[in-house]
Design goal:
This protein is an alpha/beta fold. It has 16 helices and 14 strands. The strands form 5 sheets. It has a 4-stranded parallel β-sheet, with helices on both faces. Helix 7 crosses helix 8, helix 11 crosses helix 13 and helix 12 packs parallel to helix 14. It is globular and about 90 Å long. The structure holds zinc ion (ZN). Belongs to the class-I aminoacyl-tRNA synthetase family.
Amino acid sequence: MQLFQTQQIKLYNTLSGQKENFKPINEGHVGMYVCGPTVYSNVHLGNVRTFMSFDMVFRYLKHLGYKVRFVRNITDAGHLENDADAGEDRIAKKARLEEIEPMEVVQRYTVDFHNILNKFNFLPPSIEPTATGHIIEQIEIIKTILEKGLAYEVNGSVYFDVLKYNQTKQYGILSKRNVEDLIHNTRELDGQSDKKNPQDFALWKKAEPQHIMRWPSPWSDGFPGWHLECTAMSTKYLGEHFDIHGGGMDLKFPHHECEIAQGEACNDASPVNYWMHANMLIMNGKKMAKSTGNYILPNEIFSGDNPHITKAYAPSVARFFMLQAHYRSILDFTNNGLLASEKGFYRLMDAINIMDELKASESSSINISDWKQSCYDAMNDDFNSPILIANLFEGVKFINQIKEGQASLTQDDLEAFKTTMNAFVFDILGLVNVTKVETDTDKLSGAVELLIKIRQEARANKDFALSDKIRDELAEVGIQLQDGKEGTTFSTN
Ligand SMILES: [Zn+2]
């Protein structure tokens, strides 16, 4: 018996605008695709929040016993400035400005992305495919859409024919727009474009002579349109029809709308059952933007090196802060918010540290199975992490009451309680008990202090050979001793 047989998830489906019972296509298996980053700059904190929401979803589905194939791509070509069909490729532009190869840009920021996600204790996705690794698949999809008569070629570029598609299908079904409004609200083509209508979007773009990132195709040397890669990679790894597609709210239109259109055009069926969108992260009540200075990089949170925060925060504190908001709510990133979360986080960890020492009793004064189910209920209700966290603090209260002798649990209840606390705090929310790491640091300090004392005695005995040996060998393992007026201190690197 797996947990998913007793725990029914309800999730908010952007497509229907309602919370729906989650039922995977194949029982016990979940296919989930999340649009990954365009790797042309350091990962934005707002994107980290989006990916963290789906990391939590991934973790919870796994906890319930589902076999999850989670695909999160890397966009390393085809994403033009302003998300439009004209303008420079974001990666190529960065490469030109820094005078390096586009693939050096891709490498640098893919590594940065992974480093940041590792610090936040993300689970790696099951597959992390790249757009440039799937050019052939993208060309095949374009051929199919052309054969179906829903795309046209002009001067070596291929465009999706939105108006023709809309005669039999519904373009705008996800973002609740209709094509008539889109026509009214889109400015006229300036004569530079090859498109029949401004609503059409590129499937393939012929490369200008100076464009470095180019591949041969039946139509021209060029590159795929941005929306196409996700259709190609999700189809390849999850099939024409899969369970969950996620991404940031900003991708709903046009990116995800175009993915639906491409999938429908190829297979006459909607590619995805459940569309999930994570809301924005703002800072101090305003949009985060480098240009206005209202901006912070994830690494600056860990170092404290940013004027908008007063101190450094552990990655788990920042993670806890973000999960204290529901993924569909706007989250306002503020120093006061972080300070409050830090207090809460350490209160939770302190309680967990004493949980292991709690003693069982003859009887239970707390109904643990009710409390445990309320933790599941929170997550089953569209992954409501703030309500879950409120339940975990209820657990903190139990720990303190049991410790003070004001409440009791039988051996079985105590075991169930500990298992549930650990599962939700560490496996599902993905927090790391940094206070335990500090305990290790305390042990290290104790050992080094002892060596400093021995070294002082050696010096007092004029045994300079031993004193130097202690200093040099500590330096070799990365511990530097500094002799000062106040005595000897040490630092590590
Ligand atoms: Zn995508």
